[in-house]
Amino acid sequence: MPRIFKQADDELLLRKRHSLSHVLAQVVLEFWPEAQLGIGPPTKDGFYYDFLLPVSLTDRDLKAIETRMREIVKQGYRFSSRVISIEEGKQLFKNQKFKLELIELISSGKLDENASVEQGAVDKLLIYQHSSFIDLCRGPHVESLSEIDENSFCLTKVAGAYWRGDETREMLQRIYGYAFHTQEDLANYVQKIEDAKKYDHKVLGQSLKFFSVCENVGPGLILWLPKGALVRYLIEEKIRQRLFGHGYRFIHTPHIGKSILWETSGHLDNYKENMFPEMIVENDSYFLKPMNCPFHIEIFRTLVQSYRDLPLRLAEFGSVYRYERSGTLHGLTRVRGLTQDDGHIFCSVEQIKSEICSVLNLIIDLLKEFNFNNPQFYLSTRPKDFSVGSDEIWQTSEQSLIDALDDLNLNYYVEEGGGAFYGPKIDVKVSDCFDREWQISTVQLDFNLPVRFGISYTDSDGKKKHPIMIHRALLGSLERFFGLLLENYKGELPFWLSPEQIRLVTVSDKFNQFALELQGKLCPKFRVSIDASAERLSAKIRDAELERVPAIITIGKKEIEERVFPVRLRQTSELKFIKEDELISYFSSFLHN
Amino acid sequence: MPRIFKQADDELLLRKRHSLSHVLAQVVLEFWPEAQLGIGPPTKDGFYYDFLLPVSLTDRDLKAIETRMREIVKQGYRFSSRVISIEEGKQLFKNQKFKLELIELISSGKLDENASVEQGAVDKLLIYQHSSFIDLCRGPHVESLSEIDENSFCLTKVAGAYWRGDETREMLQRIYGYAFHTQEDLANYVQKIEDAKKYDHKVLGQSLKFFSVCENVGPGLILWLPKGALVRYLIEEKIRQRLFGHGYRFIHTPHIGKSILWETSGHLDNYKENMFPEMIVENDSYFLKPMNCPFHIEIFRTLVQSYRDLPLRLAEFGSVYRYERSGTLHGLTRVRGLTQDDGHIFCSVEQIKSEICSVLNLIIDLLKEFNFNNPQFYLSTRPKDFSVGSDEIWQTSEQSLIDALDDLNLNYYVEEGGGAFYGPKIDVKVSDCFDREWQISTVQLDFNLPVRFGISYTDSDGKKKHPIMIHRALLGSLERFFGLLLENYKGELPFWLSPEQIRLVTVSDKFNQFALELQGKLCPKFRVSIDASAERLSAKIRDAELERVPAIITIGKKEIEERVFPVRLRQTSELKFIKEDELISYFSSFLHN
Question: Between chain A's N and C termini, which has fewer beta carbons within 10 Å?
C-alpha cells in the first residue's frame, strides 16, 4: 500500500524560515528606519526579504545584519497573530508604502499569489508580531524563536528584484538566507552548494565543448557543438527506442503556425508576453510556437475518426521558443529555445488509467537509464476556485491517476487543489548528487483543449465525444536535462553517453597503422578515436583525461607483440590489461550497467 | 577519360521549340491582331509565349491555334535574322508596347536574362523573321520550319503570368506547348506526364497519410504524419550513418538568430524578400533562419584555431524558413519550411580536391540507396562580370573540382561562367522514372562568407588564413526529396523504407495470440503490425495492399500446424511459402538490395 503524503514540505522548517525572514526585516528596520519593506517568504533552502533602502548593501552589512539576527533569535521572542480591520492596517503600516499597496490589493481582492498573502480576503487582515516587529502576513510561524538554533542559518547574498516582479516598478534589494534545523544541516548544505558550483554545467559545457551561446546568435539560444549534439542524439535515440515499445508514433511539425492556433489554445490571451513577436505574411499572422500541442491536435484530426483509432500516442522532439527576459536566462536550464521530448496521448476516459500506468513506467525506466533511481511523484488535484469539465470527469480521472500510482506501488505526495483548471496532473522530480530537487516529467490531463479545438471521435455507441488529452514530457527539455546530467555526473558521462568512448594513444608514429586497424575492429560498436600526434605519451594521456574520455588504450611495441593492452578507466582510475580478442566483450559490458 | 559536355541541352531541339513559340505568336496575332506580345522562350519540354489578349482563352481556342500552327509548320518557311538599329526597332514594334519596353531596357543595358534577349546590347537589336512574322529575339532558330515534324508538338494549357514576373504589372496569358523531335517522342512524353500525374506525391502523401498541410497551421508548412515522419527518420539515419563514416560531426543550431548574422552574410541585402519578417525582442532584431551557414560559421570559431583542426566537417538537419508566395507553393516540392541535410566543410585550399572527392563519393553512394544510379554532374565556373577572390584561388579551386570529377571518372557538363560570384560549384541531378530531371545535390565553394565573417585559422607557417568554405547538401531538402521518392517509387516504397514492412493477418480471433508471438520474434529487426480486427481475411489483405505494406503474412490453423507461412509480396505480386524459422533470414535479404 503506497504512502500518501498530504504535504510535500517539512512544515516546521518552513515556519522557521518564514520566522527568520521576519527577524531579517526587523533588523533591517533597526539599522535603516526609513527602509520600505516588500515581502519575505520562506524558500526551498531558506528565506528572503525585499527592501527599498537608502544604501546599497555590502557583504559587511550582511554580516552585521546576520550577527544582530542571532542576538534576536537567542532572545526567544514569541510570535502572535491577530486579525485587524483594513482601516487599522492602513494606520499600522502608514509609513510602509508597499504594505499599503498590498492592503489595497487585498481589500479589492486583486492580490496574486506572488505576494504570499491570502487571496480573496476583503475586509480583514492577518498580522504577525514578535518582539516589536509587526508584519502583514498569513503565517505560519514558529511559536517562539527559541525553537530556532541561532547557528542554523546564514545570509548568503543580495540581488535586485522588481517590486511584484514588475520591471516597470521599483527595483528592491532582496536579501537571501539559508536556514535548516541544525548547524550541521546548514554546513552540509553549504558544502554541497560549493561542490555543485565546481561542476556548474555552464563551465563544464564550455570547457568540454558540449555547447555554446554566442552574442551574434542571441542570448538563450543554444549552439549544440559536435560533442553535445552527439550526446543529445544518444539521449533522443534512447527515448525513441522506449517510445516505439510503448506504441508511440513520432511526428514532425513546423516551428511556426498561424495565430488562429494560439487564439484557440488560449496562449494569445494568457501567455502572449512569453511568446516571440508576431510575423505578418500575406495578411496572415504567424507566431513561433511556444508549445507543440495545437499541431498535435491538428494531426489528431487527420488520423482519428472512431474509438477504434484510440489511444493515439504522438511524440515529437519539438523545438519551441519562449521569450524570457535576458536577465533570467541561465546556461541550459533557462533558455529561449528548447527542445521538448514532447508527446500527447488522446484517449477515452476508460483508457486514462492504463495510459497513465504506461507513461509512469516509461518515466521510471527512462530515468533509471540516467541513474535517477528514486523519482518522487506529486499528484495535483482539482483547484477549488475554477475548473472546466464535469464533476464526474474530474472524479474519474483523479481516481484513474491514483489507481495508476497505486497499481505501480508508488509513494506520492498529494497537492490538494494544485492542479490546473483544465485537469489533474502528476509531476515527477528527481534529486541530484548535491541533493537539489529537479522537476523532470509532467503528466497532465487536459479536458479543455479538445473542447476548444472541437476535436472528437465517434464512440462505439455512435455518439461524438471529445477525447481526453494527456500532455506528457518525459525528460522535460533536452537542454535542461542535459545541463542536469552534466552536473549530476560531474562532467564524467557514463560510457554509453560519452561522445568519445575509447581513445587509442600510440607510443610513437610506428604504431599508428596498428591503431587504425584496432580502431576499425572496435568502431562499428564503439566510438573510438586515435591520438597519433607527435606529443609524448604522458601528454596524450593527460589530454584524453582532460577531455573526459572514459577509456584510454596505450599502444606500443610490447602491447602489439603480446596482444594485450593496458586500458585506463577514468571513472574508477583502474588500469586493466585486456587481451586483444577480448576487448569488444570487455567494453560491451560497460553498455549494460 | 571523362566526357565533358560544353552544353547540357539538345541544341537542335531547343531551336525547334524556340521556332514553334514564334509560330504560336504568329497565329495568335492572326486571330487577335490587337494582341500584345510578351516573350516566348523554349522550355525543358517545349515552349511558351505570353500574350495580353482581349479574350480569355478556352480549350477550343487552343485547339484552333494548334491546328493553324500545323498548317504554318507544313509551309516550311525559312527563318532569317537581321541586326537593326534601336530606332528601326522602335518603328517596327510601334504597336507592341512590351517589345518597346524591352527595346528601352536593352538600349539602356538594363535587361535581365528573363527576357531571353542578349544582355549588354546597347545600340543594336537582333530580329528574327519567318513568313510575315518578325520578333525581337536573340535566336537561335531552325533554318526552316520544314525541319519540324508537324505532329511533334501540341499546346497544353494556358496559365496566368505577370509581365516580367512582376506582380505589380499586367497579368498576361501564357500558352504552353510540348515539342519533341518526333510524334513518337511526344506521345511517350505525354504518356509519362499522364503516368506521373497518377503518382502525384500530393495525392499519394494524403491517401497514404504520409503528410498533410492544413489551413490553421498555414500554407507551405508541412505536418509530417507518423508514417511520413518514420520514413524521414529512416532517410536521416541513412545519411547519418554515411556521414559518420566520412568524418562529419553533427550539430544543432537554433531556428532564429540576430539580424547581425544576416547583415554579415548579405541575406538582408539580397534575400530579404524571401525571409520571414523581423521579430524585435529587447531591442534586438531576430529573423527565422533561411540558411544554416552563419550558425555553422559561429561554431567554426569555437572549434578551430590551427590548420591541425582542418578540415572541419559539420552537418545538421537544419530546418529553415523561406517566404514563397502562396500561389507558388506546391506539395512538398515548394514549401515555406524545409529541412536541409545541410553541411559545411571548412578546409585549406590544398584540401579542396580530396574533400570534393569525398563529397561526390558520398552523394553517389547515397543516391544509389534510393535507386538513383545515374546522377548527372554539372560544373559551374567563374562568372565573367563580377566575382570575389583572386585569380589564383579561382584557378586552383576550379582545377580541384575538375580533378575530383576526373579522379572519380565521372562525366560532367560544364556551365562556363555559371558559378556564383563567390565560388565555383558542382550540381548533381537525377532523372526520375518519368524522365523528369531533378536537381538534388549541390557542392558550392565559397570564398566570400569566411571573409565577411572574418573567420580564420593559423596555418603551419604561423600566418592567419581564411578557410575555404564548402556548402553541400546531399539530398537538398528532406521534404522535396521525399516528394520525389514518393513519385519515383509510385507510392511503393522499398522494403527498407516502408513505415510498416510486414503485416500479420489472422484468419480468425483464435490465431491472434500466435500472431502476437510471431510479431515479437520479428519485431526487433522489422516493423511488423497485426490486423486482428473482425474483418474477413480478404478485406484485411485488401486493406494492407491499399496501405502499400510490402509483405503480408496470413496466419491460420494450417499455417500454425505446419509452421510454414504464405508471404504475399506486393511489389512483385508473388506468393511465397516460408518456414517459420526462415522468416527472419528471408526478410533480411530485402534489406540488402
Answer: N
Q: Distance (Å, rounded) from C-alpha B579 to C-alpha B593? A: 22
In this prediction, residue B122 carries a pLDDT of 64
Quickly count: other Cβ atoms within 10 Å of residue A549's Cβ: 23
Say which amino acid occupies B186.
L
**Residue range(s) of every CATH 3.40.50.800 domain in chain B:** 495-592
- Asked if B253's CB is within 8 angstroms of A223's CB, the reply is yes
Q: Searching chain B, which residue's CA lies closest to the CA of residue A214?
A: B298
Residue B355 CA to residue B347 CA, distance in Å, equals 8
Residue A118 banded pLDDT, cuts 50, 70, 90: very low
Peptide bond into A226 cis (omega under 30): no
Which residues in B38-58 are b (16+ Cβ under 10 Å) and which e? bbbbbeebbbbbbbbbeeebe
- Residue B424, chain A, CB below 8 Å: the answer is no
**Chain B residue with minimum CA distance to A323:** B281
Could you give the CA distance from residue B376 to residue B427 in angstroms, rounded to a whole number? 8
Q: Are B556 and B563 in contact (CB under 8 A)?
A: no
Name A177's Cβ contacts closer than 8 Å, sequence gap at least 6. A20, A21, A24, A46, A47, A48, A66, A153, A154, A155, A156
Q: 499519394: which residue's cell? A: B204
Q: Which residues of B touch A282 (CB under 8 A)?
A: 325-326
Is the alpha carbon torsion for B489, B495, B497, B503 positive or negative? Answer: positive
Q: Which CATH architecture fits A203-253+292-488?
A: 2-Layer Sandwich (3.30)
3-state SS class at B580: helix
Distance from the Cα of A201 to chain B's closest Cα (Å) equals: 17
**pTM score:** 0.85
Residue type, A315: A
CATH for the stretch A8-190 = 3.30.980.10
pLDDT at B120: 52
Interface of A with B in 272-311 (CB under 8 A): 276-277, 279-282, 284, 286, 288, 294-295, 298-299, 301-303
From chain B, pick out residues whose CB is under 8 angstroms from the CB of A257: 216-218, 221
Q: Return the axis-axis angle of helices B226-245 and B352-369, rounded to nearest 10°.
A: 140
Q: What is the per-residue pLDDT for A566?
A: 95
Percent share of chain B, pLDDT over 70: 96
Cell 519578417: give the residue: B277
Average pLDDT of chain B? 93
Question: What is the identity of the amino acid at B127?
Answer: I
User: B370 to chain A, minimum CA–CA distance in Å?
Assistant: 22
Q: What are phi and psi of B318, to 5 degrees?
A: -100, 120
Q: Give the pLDDT confidence of A261-296 residue by residue, as tens digits.
A: 999 999 999 899 999 999 999 999 999 999 999 999
What is the location of CATH 3.30.980.10 in chain B?
8-190
Query: Chain B within 8 Å of A192 (Cβ-Cβ)?
Result: no
- Pick from B179, B322, B319, B198: nearest CA to B253: B319
| Residue of B230, B234, B248, B251 to mutate for A, most A C-beta atoms under 10 A | B251
| C-beta atoms of A258 and B216 within 8 A | yes
* Active site annotation includes A18: no
* A506-531 pLDDT per residue, tens: 999 999 999 999 999 999 899 999 99
Give dist(CA B1, CA B264) in Å, integer: 42
| A255, A264, A302 ranked by CB distance to B209: nearest | A302
Given 3.40.50.800, 3.90.800.10, 3.40.50.720, 3.40.50.11540, which CATH number is that of A495-592? 3.40.50.800
